[in-house]
Amino acid sequence: TETEAWTAQRVKAVDKEYVIHSWSVQGALDPIPVAGGSGSWFWDYDGRKYLDFQSQLVNLNLGHQHPRLVEAIRAQAADLCYIGPGFAERSRAELAEMIAGLTPGDLKMSFFTTGGAAANENAVRLARHVTGRHKIVARYRSYHGATAGAMSLTGDPRRWAAEPGISGVVRMLDPYTYRCPAGHPDPCPVCSGGPHLEEILQYENPETVAAVIVEPVTGTNGLLYPPDGYLQSLREVCDRHGILLIFDEVMAGFGRTGEWFACNHWNVVPDILITAKGLNSGYVPLGAMTVSARISEWLKDNMFWGGMTYAGHPLACASGVASLRIMEDEGVVENSRAMGERLGAGLAALAERHPSIGDIRGRGLFYGVELVKHRGTREPLVPFNAKGAAAAPVSRLLKAAMERGVYLTANFNVLRLTPPLVINSGEIDLALGVLDEVLSLADDHYQG
Ligand code: PLP
């Protein structure tokens, strides 16, 4: 009833009975009932605090309950909660203009969605219409979202449950230099990008390919940074064949890598940029598809075949405007870079003490730590797609971190270190201290 108090026990019990959680066997779950959060921390009903070293789903870049962001949502709610996408509305217009100003190159007009997957769906459909072609090249170590098209683009094993998916997706390999799929020393055709893409296009017929979609820095699937020249090389191949280049920066965009956009590290500009998550720190669901000046021109005379009830929702857009202002006013991108250097240095020091650390990859606050059984063979601490008992060496480590008040996650054998971009040096050091303790659990499996 409405008068019955929502105790931790009641939240848990009602959740267990009625809520379906993502990517889970429901009976196996035991979620922590969360009572609140502030900055880089959240806490349960007993007042137990956790340092959020994930930014939740790598979206809460400004941390929990940023006062200015909360206030902007409150103000927009008082003004106008909703108006249909067919009307011109201030927060939507302002956010689109700000994105055009912040994004690299000539990226200009934006279509707003409720998240990353929907933005990717629209990008694929638009690319097909603009080019009059149907195939899309995507990579294996990728995540693009859980809707039919986005899941078909996705390479990670969650795709298997959604197959056969949409047609026309062609797969290329990843520039995973630590585990180079071609087995070469760098630079190899795969890790340098263009030669591998060219070969695939040769077999597929480039005139049937509408777009190539990549995460410039792979997020969920292992924090993979491309070698210098890789994105440039993809750009050149796409241009040669009239293929559009789509960058999915849902996770890597808006300061995560210590630049406003990950592609800025290499000065490569896509035809379509997909963002979400850090665009407004996820306080209200929001995603965006931002297109080049050329596609913006094309849209003046051609139909845009896309729309949703909540395209450009005023509450979401107002939170986006506030979020970007906060990022500029508070030097959030600079903080991401500075705290990232501190985190990187701390991890390098940990690698000297913990043989299970095979590789450390990161810039800004977008770090992956690859755990191995042996540095020479690089055998992963747990295999690809490990679950249950097979994943235990990593899941035990994550649990031990949680017991010490630090929330961490992993993709199989790669720890993901992606704290809020507003984190401070004391909090970074605290997490490094806990990592130092729990990494010994990984070292126990070392076979050196
Ligand atoms: N693209 C990337 C790179 C992502 O990391 C994600 C989510 O993790 C998505 C797309 C999907 O976004 P959403 O969950 O908002 O649909």
TrEMBL record:
By its UniProt entry, which InterPro entries does this protein fall under? Answer: Aminotrans_3 (IPR005814), Aminotrans_3_PPA_site (IPR049704), PyrdxlP-dep_Trfase (IPR015424), PyrdxlP-dep_Trfase_major (IPR015421), PyrdxlP-dep_Trfase_small (IPR015422)
The question of whether Transferase is a record keyword is answered with: yes
Q: Name one GO molecular function term.
A: transaminase activity
User: What would be one Gene Ontology cellular-component term for the protein?
Assistant: cytosol
Respond yes or no to whether keyword Transferase is given for this record. Answer: yes
**Pfam families assigned to the protein according to its UniProt record, in alphabetical order:** Aminotran_3 (PF00202)
Domain of life where this protein originates: Bacteria
Assigned keywords, A-Z: Aminotransferase, Pyridoxal phosphate, Transferase
Similarity field: Belongs to the class-III pyridoxal-phosphate-dependent aminotransferase family.
Q: Which NCBIfam families match?
A: PRK06062.1
The protein here is known as Aminotransferase
Q: Which organism is it from?
A: Dactylosporangium sucinum
